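I wish you would study the pair of lines that follows with an eye to the fold:

===
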Amino acid sequence: MLFGNFEIVSLGAFDLKTSQEFIEHHLQDVLAGAQLRHFLTDFTGGHPLYLNLICKELVNLSAVYKQNEIYMPLLSQAVENTIFNRWGVISRHFELIVLDLCQGKDNRVVSSLLISLANGKNKIDDIIADVAFSKLKVRSKIKDLLEKSILVKNGQHYYFQDKLFKYWVRYVYQKRLHDVDLSQEKQKKEFKEEFARSMDAIRISAGQDFSARIVDLLHCFDDESFDLNGRKYRLPVFEEVTSFKLKNDNGTFLDVIKAIGNNETWLIALKKENVGEGDIQTALSYAKQLGVRPDRCVLVALTDIEDTTRLKALQEKFWIWNEGELNTLLTIFDKPYIIR
């Protein structure tokens, strides 16, 4: 390797389908239900390092307790071992990141910024008010965090690039700094309770209908512009959002949402899979019935769209949001991924 011509390739987060396959492969012969795999994908943000380490811990624990299928208690123990315990491999990894970030002058500013962002403060004025440091210091440190790829800026929102790091900062690092009066056992108990709540929240979200999840997301829009896959989109405040189904000519149904706000109307067609030209035509036929064409038509699809269908949608001036755009919005507004 000393004299070889090697190139370092940075491996980013997996997409949702690849994450599911990665989990199945690395759990070897240990069974894990779809709900648990979905949770792990969302919890880790699809990061291969974290998926690999937690899966290894799950395989080890399943051997220790002689279980060939993973249930909640085993997953909770694996997460505690890797993320909560001080010498857990992921926890130690995050501690080293924080130590590096907090080196030098004004290290308290960085620590406070990370905690503020992890607690949901994602606009500059809210962050400044929360941490009580000067605007100049806050902006300077945020710029550093952006350059080091700890944070991402989209529109006026700042958020963690790494979902699991955000979770660790909020529920492990913050507790260690601020709850000094709590014993290790009490901190461990609180962590277990919080982790159980996180699992319940994702389980409830996963049980919701696709259209209900999108309606919930639309209610988060705050009349700002965001960059989604290289394009700018302004997302208005919606005051009225209704969902319904339209029947296609072939007898199948298309989920549709009509959203009204800021003196404009959006018509959003939703399809988890098998999007066809007929779905576009069904949405267009409904739009004609309204008398005035909606200001914006959007197609939200979780699977790849055939070229002919994509061309039809683009010709009709539809915005097309796939899994990547959708998950960017869900991350910005701190919502679980939608997994097909």
